[in-house]
Amino acid sequence: MNQVLGELNPSPRILMGPGPSDVHPRVLRAMATPLVGHLDPEFLALMNETQALLRYVFQTQNPLTFAVSGTGSAGMETCVVNLVEPGDRMVVCVNGVFGQRMLDVAQRAGAEVTVLERPWGDIFPLDLIRETLKKVRPKVLGIVHAETSTGACQPMDGLGALCHEYDTLLLVDTVTSLGGIPVEVDHWQADAVYSGTQKCLSAPPGLAPVTFSPRAVEAIQRRKTKVQSWYLDVTMVQRYWGQERFYHHTAPITMIYALREALRLVQEEGLEQRFARHRLHHSALKAGLAALGIRYAAVEGYQLPQLNAVWIPPGADDVTTRRTLLDRFGIEIGGGLGDFKGKVWRIGLMGYSCRANNVLLFLAALEQSLILQGLKIPEGASLAAANRVYAQQVVRG
Ligand SMILES: *Cc1c(COP(=O)(O)O)cnc(C)c1O
To answer: Rounded CA gap, 85 and 223, in Å?
Structure first.
């Protein structure tokens, strides 16, 4: 290659898709901090602080809480391959793309998998799960808390206790929920929980926070076979994150800087405040979309505030609309995945992206795009509806 390439210069974007979300400027600044070694005593102190902050956002006391080097899917794989041995029974709940992914990971790990299915956009009632546990008696039940492909939020109350009645470990995907809606690991009695950094934590993709209950740790210690993955074996990784500081692999130092700063931002805002902020901007967006006749794909009452999956209105073209948003306004939203491809848009209000500026700009931009395509819409109605929600909030606040 002879040509000298130009400097990196991507266009400014407003990330309102299913992730990554906009990274907070303070996180970007933390990432420009010079490196220290991954065994430097100062870095080890930063790791301890990051673990303490992770316990805070996960709402857990679990000692085995750390960040896997890899994206959310690496967190999923870590939980699955450490809990199951070839031949172990596992139930996977599938009502969207990420349940399907967990099923694939479980099968590759050699689990004997039973699939529990629900229609996309729906959730799993406790009674249905009880029936399956009674029949299958699995070692592990895997479920997605916030299904990013459909915008559905799985209720978690009572699920851990139910699983333990049947001697089953509860494995939960909180990639899209952590930092956006309550993730209460101890209260849920969840045993293995993973997340990602690029959704509601608003750091770049690259780490997967995970936490394991003492019950899960015991199950891992009782394994008869080695964990199939060398890289993701928590018994080895733990020796680096724990007291021994035994070298396993080089920690992605810059990403730990980023995660620590992102978590500090969560702590400064406070969990309750942060959840309230996500609910507020979701309400404004939802009111705005309703004014245009746009409806949600997930069942009413179980819709995620941070991931708004909505049916594409008749007469609007999926790709044309998203292209207009991107080219004219720099706004990225997501298209549908799997069964929902070409049928839904996924509008993220995650972490730092979850702001009134973004909601109002998006609604204005969407109206323009729909008008350009010749749709008859009540012009300005979406902004008015969103502003009414904000005005009420101001009066109440
Ligand atoms: C994004 C996502 C994942 C996968 O995370 P990656 O960071 O893309 O590997 C897994 N589960 C859910 C629910 C997600 O939203």
So the answer is: 7
Hey, what are 248's tokens? 């396993």
Decide: helix, strand or coil at residue 69.
strand
Strands 207-212 and 192-194: antiparallel
Ligand 1 centroid to residue 111 C-alpha, Å: 21
Distance CA 163, CA 33 (A): 44
What would the two tokens of residue 369 be?
Answer: 């795009």
Q: Which of 102, 148, 153 to mutate to test the pocket of ligand 1 (most atoms within 8 A of CB)?
A: 148
Each residue's pLDDT tens digit, 294-317 = 999 999 999 999 999 999 999 999
User: Apex CA 268: angle with CA 262 and CA 273, to 5°?
Assistant: 105
How many Å apart are CA 144 and CA 102, to the nearest integer?
A: 9
Query: Is the bond leading into 20 cis (omega within 30 degrees of zero)?
Result: yes
72: CA distance to ligand 1 center in Å?
5
Ligand 1 binding pocket includes 98 (Cβ within 6 Å) = yes
- Taking the model in full, what pTM does it have? 0.97
- Tell the burial category of 264 from Cβ atoms under 10 Å away from its Cβ (0-12, 13-18, 19+): middle
pLDDT tens digits for range 223-262: 999 999 999 999 999 889 988 888 899 999 999 999 999 9
**Which two three-digit tokens encode residue 89?**
């029974």
Q: Beta 331-332 vs 207-212: how paired, if at all?
A: unpaired
Q: Which domains does the chain have, with CATH numbers?
A: 25-268 (3.40.640.10), 270-396 (3.90.1150.10)
CB atoms closer than 10 angstroms to residue 311: 17
